[in-house]
Amino acid sequence: MAIATNNDIAKAIYLASKENPVNVVTETVRFFARKRLMSRAPDILARLEKIVHKAENKIRAKVTSAEQLGQTEKSNIEHFLKKRYEVTGILFEEVVDKKVVGGVKIEIDDEVLDLTVKNRIHKLQEYLIS
Amino acid sequence: MNNNIVENLKKEINNFSLQLKIEKVGHVIEVFDGIVKVSGLSDIKSSEMVTFPGGETGVALNLEEDAVGVIILGDFSKIKEGDEVKATGRILEIPVSDNILGRVVNGLGLAIDGKGAIKSEKTYPIEKVAPGVVTRLSVDQPVATGIKVIDAIIPVGRGQRELIIGDRQTGKTAIAIDAILNQKGQNMICVYVSIGQKDSKLRKIEARLEAGGAMAYTVIVSAGASEAAALSYIAPYTGVSIAEYFMDQGKDVMIIYDDLSKHAVAYREISLLLRRPPGREAYPGDVFYLHSRLLERACRRNEKYGGGSITAFPIIETQAGDISAYIPTNVISITDGQIFLETDLFYKGIRPAVNVGFSVSRVGSTAQIKAVKKVAGTLKLDLAQFRELEAFAQFGSDLDESTKRQLERGKRAIEVLKQPQYAPMKIEHQVVVFYALVKGYMDDVPLEKIKAFETGLIEYSERNAKTFYKEVLEKKMWAEKGEAELIKAIEDFKSGFNK
Predict the structure, then answer these.
(1) Cβ-nearest to A110 among B26, B64, B65
(2) Strand partners, B100
(3) Nearest residue to B414 via CA among B364, B499, B366, B357
(4) Chain B partners of A85 at a C-beta cutoff of 8 Å?
(5) Dihedral pair phi/psi, residue A59, rounded to 5°
């Protein structure tokens, strides 16, 4: 018997929510408890979020920078991401981390564009060692 | 001095150009026994290299819907849950260069012999599709192993895959080492892949090759018993990639996999940890493909595609002589023949302990030189008949003359085929010895004096049958003049020997 993957379960919850949006939360929790899936719940819900975003033509972008981003920088990043991923909406998750020194690091799902000074120094270090 | 350092640094920094691109990353979900489960890495390819924050390298083997199963090539103790894993977009590759000759490297092609790093500008992927049919030539050039029983009865050709199979302590590695030692001046590069062996044994082998002057044309790839199973798994592929590097230069290469039983065990360990379904003897379903894709890379390429060849000697260790176990039968069916070694023969003093009846070379006879074929052509049949007669002779004492003669000849043939370790014999010397044997010149030599007769005859004939040697070396077959000279040399030597 094939084992249902986290992705399969997330898809099933999404389809169920479209058919019966009222009871979906209660039923999902009951299902998790009955099938002992609570330990897998965070991953299933993360996948469910991605499915929902895909259906709504949105993506979640995690942007890490040394300072709080200004409006212009944010709209530039938004413009770039909309064009690259062909989506209508971007959900920003902003992180301020002094360790990156400068620049930005953009993470979308498993893709990373690291334009930080920290990364540049690291690459220069690798180049000089090799 | 200091100014130079600063200037150099400035120059290097100026040369540095950073090309930032979108990278595929994943995160470690769990780490156990050299295996890492990684989330993300959605577009990763099978056998693609990944890197961890500490600089460790891994190979993606299991591509599942939710996660990727990665084997770590090295120390996995520093990898933690949540660590970022980067995909490189490249299939696992190793550095290759001519400087690798004479060195001992690990499964990743990095030097482990303490002689410093190996400078190399090229890299070769460890997984490659074997050369296709149009690029290949049939096997017709001999590999002189220097071992009489092999060169005469189970001849091996360049591009052949000949299995060496037998129980523990029957001399499998000894045959391989002797074959490497005999390649001096034969225009052959040798690669010895040691899988799951004790480091002390490897050290001994390296010292032996060094002493015999064989390290000049040999590379040793080692994945020791104390190293991770992942390194044992990739070591043979690393070895064959090094062999391919030399073959691509049109050179002939001989590769020894010592041994593939341990390689299969390492792969079984990885597969079970990756939770792949176990099959017969708990090996995964693709264990046949594991060895077939490796051994198929041994070939002889035609001139149009650069020439060169890879001759493979895989070694398999059997348990209590059971050649019908899973891995032995698999490798027997993949290879072009096998050299079967037996414990009983070994303890009877017949060394190399080759069982001539069970051993076979399916393609090597076309590669055998004419002179050897002529003298050793009937040897296998003669030995088979001898064994049969020997069994009957145990029951009765009244034997006719011809049977007695056949028995005596057989006993002498067995004595001639015995050979000490690390003493490979040149092919022209083998021709002389077998000539004397099959023409009956040894029939009246006492059994205990056969070895002395053999050594003496080689020395004497080298001085007194120069034409014969010249003809065999140049034309691969003797002519009438050379033969007459050899016969005279044998008769002269024999008359002196009997006194």
Answers:
(1) B26
(2) none
(3) B357
(4) none
(5) -135, 155
Which amino acid is it at A83? K
Nearest to B41 among A107, A110, A128 (CB): A110
Contacts of A120 in chain B (CB under 8 A): 18
**Catalytic position from the list B90, B168, B203, B362:** B362
b/e burial code for range B435-459 (CB count within 10 A of at least 16 → b) = bbbbeebbeebeeeebeebbeebbe
**Nearest CA among B313, B235, B224 for reference residue B267:** B235
Using the beta-carbon criterion (under 8 Å), do A110 and B18 form an inter-chain contact?
no
Please write the tens of the pLDDT for every residue from B62-105.
998 888 999 999 888 999 999 999 999 999 999 999 999 999 99
| 3-state SS assignment for residue B461 | helix
CB B160 within 8 A of CB B363: yes
- Comparing C-alpha atoms, which of A7, A62, A109 is closest to residue B43? A109
pLDDT at B2: 63
- Looking at chain B, which residue has its C-alpha nearest residue A121? B18
**Is B405 marked active-site?**
no
Phi, psi dihedral angles at B83 (to 5 degrees)? -60, 145
Helix, strand, or coil here: A75?
Answer: helix
Structure-model confidence comparison of residues A43 and B429, the more confident one: B429
The whole-angstrom separation of Cα B96 and Cα B129 is: 18
Reply yes or no: is the peptide bond before residue B259 cis, omega within 30 of 0: yes
Q: Which residues, at least 6 apart from B406, have a Cβ–Cβ distance to it below 8 Å?
A: B382, B385, B386, B389
Q: Which of A8, A112, A123 sits opposite B18 (nearest CB)?
A: A123
Q: Which residues of A touch B16 (CB under 8 A)?
A: 124, 127-128
Contact state of A112 with B20 under an 8 Å Cβ cutoff: no
Interface of B with A (CB under 8 A): 9, 12-13, 16, 18, 20-26, 39-42, 64-66
Identify which of B210, B219, B224 has the alpha carbon closest to the alpha carbon of residue B254.
Answer: B219
Q: What is the model's pTM?
A: 0.89
Q: Inspect the interface and report whether the beta carbons of B65 and A128 lie closer than 8 Å.
A: no
Residue ranges, chain B, pLDDT below 70: 1-3, 396-397, 499
Q: Nearest by CB to B12, from A7, A43, A128: name it.
A: A128
Which residues are A105's β-sheet partners? A64, A114
| B305-340 residues labelled b (16+ CB within 10 A) or e (exposed) | bebbbbbbbbbbbbeebebeeebbebbbebbbbbbb
Task: Report CA B125 to chain centroid distance, whole Å.
Answer: 20
How far apart are alpha carbons B339 and B344 in whole angstroms?
Answer: 15
Residues A106, A92: Cα–Cα separation, whole Å: 10
Alpha-carbon gap: B17 to the closest alpha carbon of chain A (Å): 9
- What was the pLDDT predicted at B54? 86
Closest C-alpha among B369, B260, B359, B252 to residue B300: B252
